[in-house]
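#struct-help
A.M.: can someone run this one for me? Single chain, 113 residues.
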Amino acid sequence: MAAERTYLAWIRTAIALMAFGFVVARFGAFLRSIAMAETPDAGQGPAASLALGLALIGVGVALCLIAAVRHRRYVRAIDEGRFRSAFGSNVAFGLAALLALTGLAMVLFLAAR
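D.P.: on it. C-alpha cells below:
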C-alpha cells in the first residue's frame, strides 16, 4: 500500500504543477489586459509568464510519466526483494531544485515590473 500512496502523491504533485502552470500562464494574460486597459497601445508585452506557465505544465506532464514508470519499477523491485538497493531520491531532489529555480524566476519577473 505504501507504493500506491507514494505513486498517488507524485500524481497529485504533477497535477498541482500543471494547475500552477496554467495559473501562471493566465496571470500573464491578465497583466497584459490590465496594461492594455490603462494604455491601449501597450501591445502584447513580455510573454515570460506564458513561457514559464507552459514549462510548468510540461514538467507536470513529465512528472506523471516518471511517476508511472517509477511505480512500476517499485512494485517489480519489491516483488524481487531488492527495493532498498534499487532506488534513490534523485528525481525528488531534481524536482525540488527545478521548483526552487522556477520560484526564483517568478520573483525576478515580478520584481522587474
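A.M.: thanks! DSSP finds four helices and no strands in the chain.
D.P.: also worth noting: Residues 2-112 form one domain.
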